[in-house]
Structures are given as C-alpha cells and as structure tokens.
Amino acid sequence: MELSMAEIVKTIVIGIVEGLTEWLPVSSTGHMILVDEFIKLNVSKSFMDMFLVVIQLGAILAVVAISFEKLNPFSGFKSKEEKRLTIELWKKVMVACVPAAVIGLIFNDYMEEHFMTTGVVAAMLILYGVLFIWVENYNRGRNPRINNLDFLDYKTAFIIGMFQVLALVPGTSRSGATILGGILFGASRLVAAEFTFFLAIPVMFGASALKIVKFGFNYTFEEVVILLIGMVTAFIVSVLSIKFLLRYIKNNDFKAFGWYRIALGIIVVLYLLLIGDPIN
Questions:
Q1: What would the pLDDT profile of 217-234 be if each residue is shown by its tens digit?
Q2: Residue 170 domain-assigned?
Q3: Any domain includes 212
Q4: Residue 280 lies in a domain
C-alpha cells in the first residue's frame, strides 16, 4: 500500500474517535462502525481488525501516564501504608479481571461471529442509554457507601468485573457497563470511573497481545506507521478525554451520556434501514 497524506489523516481521525469513546460510556464499537463506513483505510481486513484493537494501547498508556503515581506500589514518595494500599488496589483489579478473562476467552469468538451486527449495536446503545438514566434516577438522594477507591472491597470489585463481561456484546461499552455496575453496588461515580480506568489496563493489554499474535509480525513499513500514528493520537486524545470525564462527574451525573447513547442508537437504526447492515 502507498502511505498518502489522506491515509494519515484517516488514521488520525480514527485515533481521535478511539481516544474519545474508549473512556466515555458511549460505546467505541458503535462509533467505529459509523466511522469505518465513511473513513476506510487502504489496508487488509485482517490488519484493520488488529489495528482497531491495538490502537487501544495508546488509550491505555494514557491511563498509566495520568495515574502513574497512584498505580505505582514502589514509589519513593509513598509511605509504607500507601504502598500496601496500592498493592491491594492491583489485587482488586486482578480479581475483577477474572470474569472477563474466563468468560471472554470462551465466548469472545462466538459473540463476534453472532452478535457483531449493526442491529445489536444500536439496541445496546439505546438499552444502556436508558439504563444510565434509570440508574441516576434510582440513585437520586441516595448516598454511595464507597467514596474512596481504598475502601472498595473485593466483593464489589468482582461484581464490577462481572458487569465488564456484558461488554462482550458489541455496543454495550466496557466503561459504561462497569461504571453502571459500580454505581448500582454502592460506589460513587468517581470511584466507579477510576476503577473502570484501572481495570482496562490488564484487559486491553491482554486483548491487544492476542490480536498481535493472531495477526503475526509481518508488518510493512506503512502498516507500522499507521499503527504508531493511531496509537499516539489515541493516547493524546485519551489524556484529554479522561481528564474531562473526571472533572465532569464531580458535579454532573451520567444522564447526558444516556441521552447521547439513545440518540446515537436511533441514528444507527436509521442508517441500518437506509443502507443495510455494514458489518455483514
């Protein structure tokens, strides 16, 4: 393939969409479907499938960069107790990863084969949009029992991990499902969002590693450049996206994201009626 300026611009746009939608509870899959219809890279299908997963590494590195001190149990700036709490946090993340690791490995291929349709994506966008609005109404006037990440217990961490399994269904949004689970089981919006960010680190590294191994290591120079541009773009935009979300939820609820998901789901349905299912 020839790496033209047009291909670079397309890659940057895809990286921007990934960086924004990976962390906001709006479904990166739903957005990528629409983007892929209008912005097609001149690459093989196998490379594109791998690319859309591996550029998430850029988004994950944004979490690591922003929260490095909080995630580093060996920091010289931390007391002995703070280091212990950091190790405990990582243990909770590992516990929360178990459901997705087990169930995901068993059913991931089946879900991609049978549920990767525009109709399913649209339905999940709308369903979880309604759930966000319902959960916020349900929690109105109720005080969360977990207002600090240090007080998140292993049981709640595991339950949040179970909600992450729901993201196997395209259009659900991994961050959306886990944030909903955290809020429903007593975590504040901020705690639920932060734990969701940290939970993504091992999950996305594992998913990217699997895709890279499946694709192989025979990259052309142009493919390497596209991959790097996509990852760097996703990293930069993710930094901004994460900081925005953490500021936003201090004074706002998730209803706006719920209404956005419903609107996008309706757009995807209309798109489906007009052109058919672009995935199949």
A1: 788 888 889 999 999 999
A2: yes
A3: yes
A4: no
Q: Is residue 109 part of a domain?
A: yes
Domain range for 67: 5-275
Q: pLDDT tier at 280 (50, 70, 90 boundaries)?
A: low
Tens of pLDDT, residues 5-59: 888 999 999 999 999 998 999 988 778 777 877 788 888 888 887 888 888 889 8
For the chain, how many structural domains are there in total? Answer: 1
Other Cβ atoms less than 10 A from the Cβ of 111: the count is 17
Q: Which amino acid is at 14?
A: I
Q: Which amino acid is located at 77 in the chain?
A: F
Q: How far is CA 263 from CA 48, 129, 259, 267, in A?
A: 27, 9, 6, 6
State pTM to two decimals.
0.85
Locate all alpha helices (DSSP H) within the chain, ordered by sequence. Answer: 5-21, 28-38, 45-54, 56-66, 68-71, 80-115, 118-138, 154-165, 174-184, 189-215, 221-251, 255-275
Angle at 205 between CA 200 and CA 146, to 5 degrees: 20
- Collapsed DSSP state (helix, strand, coil) of residue 95: helix
